[in-house]
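We close this part of the discussion by returning to an individual protein. The amino acid sequence and the backbone structure tokens for this protein are reproduced below:
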Amino acid sequence: MATVLVVDDTPSQLELMNVYLQDGGYHVITASDAKDALFKAENYQPDIILTDVVMPGMSGFEFCRQLKRNPVTQNLPIVICSSKNKQIDKIWGMRQGADIYLTKPFSKQELIQALKSVLDSPMPIVSHTRTTVS
């Protein structure tokens, strides 16, 4: 069973993703802000991280950069899940280290498929191409 760290400052969105993922067979760890999520990512080493972009204190983009700069968390796959749906947001998210950029609203199937596509793919040593799910 894969472990997912879910980061979102909106309690209802956090709960929705938690339910979707638990129903999909994932073990879920939650965080309501990026600072707490950095701590949990380093200490719990989840298999994948699912993060929002718009959060107080530290954005999801900055959170991605912090994860990728830390040798302990730099190889953790990241799925950004955001209501920011402009192409520039998706490009910027991928440049910050996200493996997939999923836009809200999303279905349970879209969320599960996004995670599976990252978890099931072989981890390349260097990757210049990334998938965007919209």
